[in-house]
């Protein structure tokens, strides 16, 4: 069918905080968390004013907000660390393909984003 995408994994339109570190350059870490779009098990699009070039290797720290089973008003966070490669770069940001290895860890306490109160 025309216009239909064949994807291996389902993708989700989630805007979650992402910190991107360029592995091959020192001092290119973003000062603040960026936002993702179209997150799936094998990649994500990351909004940035300074996209890296195609084939740049990156380390990603994604923060997932996971609701507590006991109290829906209480938030719990997990940190997902994964490496990846930029496979598309455009003015709005970059598409990153995740590598096969990742680490998921709970985050203790609250998270503060620039301009926000504790969440």
Would you mind describing this structure in some detail?
Helix content is 0%, strand content 52%. The chain is mainly beta and 119 residues long. It has a single domain (11-107), classed as Thrombin, subunit H. A six-stranded antiparallel barrel has the order 2-3-4-7-6-5. 16% of the residues are buried.
| Spans where pLDDT lies below 50 across 5 or more residues | 114-119
| Shape type | globular
* Continuous helix count: 0
Query: Structurally, how many domains make up the residues?
Result: 1
- The CATH topology name reads Thrombin, subunit H
Share of helix among residues? under 10%
Elements, N to C (H/E) = EEEEEEE
**What's the CATH class, please?**
Mainly Beta
Radius of gyration, taken over Cα atoms and rounded to an integer in Å? 15 Å
Question: Total number of β-strand segments?
Answer: 7
Strand order of the largest sheet: 2-3-4-7-6-5
- Going by CATH, the architecture would be Beta Barrel
């Amino acid at each position: 069918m025309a216009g239909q995408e064949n994807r291996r994994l389902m993708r989700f339109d989630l805007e979650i905080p992402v910190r991107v570190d360029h592995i091959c350059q020192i001092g290119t870490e973003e000062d603040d968390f960026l936002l993702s779009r179209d997150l799936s098990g094998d990649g994500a699009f990351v909004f940035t004013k300074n996209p890296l070039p195609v084939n740049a290797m990156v380390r990603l720290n994604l923060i997932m907000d996971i609701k507590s089973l006991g109290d829906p008003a209480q938030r719990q966070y997990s940190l997902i660390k994964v490496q990846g490669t930029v496979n598309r770069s455009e003015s709005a940001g970059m598409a990153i393909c995740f590598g096969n290895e990742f680490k998921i860890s709970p985050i203790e306490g609250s998270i503060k984003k620039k301009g926000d109160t504790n969440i």
